[in-house]
Amino acid sequence: MHDHAPSGIRGAGNRRLLAISLAITTVVMVVQIVGAALSGSLALLADAAHMFTDAAALVIALVASIVAARPANDRRTFGYQRAEVFGALVNGVILLALTAWVAVEGVSRLLAPADVEVEGGLMLVVAIVGLLANAVAMWLLSGAQRHSLNVRGAYLEVLGDLLGSAAVIVAAIVILVTGWAPADAIASLLIAAMIVPRAIGLLKEVVSVLAESAPQGTHVRDIRDHILATPGVVDVHDVHVWQLTRGAPVFSAHVVVDDRVMRNGQASGILSQLQTCLSQHFDVEHSTFQLEPAGHVEHEAHA
User: How many secondary structure helices (H) and strands (E) does the chain include?
Assistant: First the structure.
């Protein structure tokens, strides 16, 4: 006996937001590449590389969202919702690879300064354009990222870019005011430092989902207490809580009920109460209950 609560986290709205963010990211990336080439800024080039990575990540997120929307079938009974998790996994790996590249380039520039004059004015203008574009993209994704792991991966990518653009702006101002060129390389290292914790956090969440751990913030003891508080329920066992992806929790349990519940035909009412409880109090999308008379537990113990 089970219940499915509607979920719109993988709907057309998310795909539209991802597509708009992809368009913004691609345009700004081209602008930054041209600006980096003309200004000689390593920080701006690193931010452009991050934008390129973001564009690839958004493509992955968009494709994963489309795949995840496919209906379930006899082979994949839960559908393709896990496609979002794999998309987020790729995003996290890309973020870490980008961090290593930026760090190596930044340290190399500091240890062996290249004979390249950095044009602080052009660097500043391009960085401001990037900052504004990333702010718009973040605003578009801010709502959906709270419910979709895949969209959250894309959101973190854009957030990293926004912070990177801010660092480039500061470096450009320093260069314009003081002429101190190493500020450009330092900004590159700051970009790398800002990427690492978000990438690790995203990968930890992916591992948690793939390991079928209980969703963060979900307390199995509280769910068990709610179930036991339902009139007619004697005990509950074999409780399992996991998630297919962010915002798609799954719950199953064996619920032992008083023998009179079965005899009086009250099982349907108890099932409805349990499903409503899981949906309203714990935001569980898919719940499955096996109702058992008290004597059935002893049978299972000997099986």
Answer: 10, 4
